UniProtKB/TrEMBL annotation:
GO terms (BP aspect): L-histidine biosynthetic process
Single GO molecular function: histidinol-phosphate transaminase activity
Assembly notes: Homodimer.
Gene behind the chain: hisC
Name of the protein in question: Histidinol-phosphate aminotransferase
PANTHER family per record: HISTIDINOL-PHOSPHATE AMINOTRANSFERASE, HISTIDINOL-PHOSPHATE AMINOTRANSFERASE-RELATED
TM annotation in the entry: none
Family label: Belongs to the class-II pyridoxal-phosphate-dependent aminotransferase family. Histidinol-phosphate aminotransferase subfamily.
Residues bearing the modification N6-(pyridoxal phosphate)lysine: K210
Organism: Lonepinella koalarum
Cofactor(s) needed by this chain: pyridoxal 5'-phosphate
Catalytic activity: L-histidinol phosphate + 2-oxoglutarate = 3-(imidazol-4-yl)-2-oxopropyl phosphate + L-glutamate
Length: 350
């Protein structure tokens, strides 16, 4: 007797998201999950652990609204940006609707769609990692949610702003356009937040996991017009954020926390420039892709050899060899200068 056949067919068929942690590895240098390499330090200020938390903690909502330049009514806080992805699918997709994504891109859009039993349409990015708008337009039938990631994970590239606005125009009254801005702190000028007033069907995903250095907190946001936020409020869990999480998130969003985040960003950008400079001198490096985020996608002559050799030395990178169009590519998170020095040294010796 086995109960597996009792689970939903789509769950039986599901390949779970291959998160960096699930893939494992042993070592001291973790450059595979786009985390910040060191932890900020916070003390808990609230100790009412016996009480349920506020459903949408005011200090967190106001802090993020203030930081993002929107009104509190334009913000919903979730358990990481990942929960926002699933929330939007659950709120908007009927069983026979479709979700559209543009690989190579973040894997959670397809995993969340499959988990919800929603069919997925795939319109690959062009060779220079831009939207194929003509093909997207031809495939919009029954599509309720379009996911676009900018800066895109794992390529690091920005999607052209004019293309995003065209996408918003061709989907008006038809579909929600989700622009995933998980890495926007590394290129804040590229945000679409100022377009919210023009597009009721635009939803922007944000997170504290990357530039805010709080991946362990599990705290993310969706920014949208009040009507869209209200719909997500209807389907979100009653108490999504644990008391310690909102406590620390509220502190991280104070002016001092924002300043520290910006200092971190400057650090990452300096180290990224250094890494790219070093990699460009290594003969086994075929191509270094343009990046606006805290990671860089690199094409090698033989990426599997590089990946495996460094893995065995405890330098854990993110293999992209099997991602659409990314043969022989590895994604390297910008770690500390010391971690990057060791990584460069190890690559040179392969
Ligand atoms: C990291 C990431 C997220 C969100 O991560 P959370 O830790 O769940 O907030 C969302 N989208 C992309 C593209 C990411 O890389």
């Amino acid at each position: 007797m086995t109960i597996s056949p009792l689970s939903r067919k789509n769950v039986q068929a599901l390949t779970p998201y291959q998160s960096a942690r699930r893939l494992g590895g042993k070592g001291d240098i973790w450059l595979n999950a786009n985390e910040y390499p060191t932890s900020p330090n916070f003390d808990l200020l609230h100790r009412t652990f016996n009480r349920y938390p506020e459903p949408q903690p005011e200090a967190v909502i106001n802090g993020y609204a203030n930081y993002a330049g929107v009104k509190p009514e334009n913000v919903i806080v979730t358990r990481g940006g990942d929960e926002s992805i699933e929330l939007i699918i659950r709120a908007f997709c009927e069983p026979d609707d479709h979700v559209l994504h543009c690989p190579p891109t973040y894997g959670m859009y397809s995993v969340s769609a499959e988990t919800c039993g929603i069919a997925l349409k795939t319109v690959p990015l062009t060779a220079d990692f831009q939207l194929n708008l003509a093909e997207i337009e031809r495939n919009l039938d029954r599509v309720k949610v379009v996911f676009v990631c900018s800066p895109n994970n794992p390529t690091g590239t920005l999607v052209n702003r004019v293309d995003l606005l065209k996408l918003l125009d061709i989907t008006r009254n038809k579909a929600i356009v989700v622009v995933d801005e998980a890495y926007i702190e590394f290129c804040p000028q590229a945000s679409l937040v100022n377009e919210l007033a023009n597009y009721p069907h635009l939803a922007i995903i944000r997170t504290l996991s990357k530039a805010f250095a709080l991946a362990g907190l599990r705290c993310g946001f969706t920014l949208a017009n009040a009507e869209l936020i209200g719909i997500l409020q209807k389907v979100i869990a009653p108490y999504p954020l644990p008391v310690p999480v909102s406590d620390i998130a509220a502190q991280a969003l104070q002016p001092q926390g924002i300043t520290q985040m910006q200092e971190r960003v400057n650090d990452v950008l300096n180290n990224r420039a250094w890494l790219i400079e070093q990699l460009s001198k290594i003969p086994t490096v075929v191509q270094i892709f343009e990046t606006e985020a805290n990671y860089v996608l690199v094409k090698f002559q033989d990426s599997e050899k590089i990946f495996k050799t460094l893995w065995e030395q405890g330098i854990i990178l993110r293999d992209q060899h099997k991602a659409l169009g990314l043969q022989n590519c590895i994604r390297i998170t910008i770690g500390t200068r010391n971690e990057l020095e060791q990584t460069v040294k190890a690559i040179k010796l392969v």
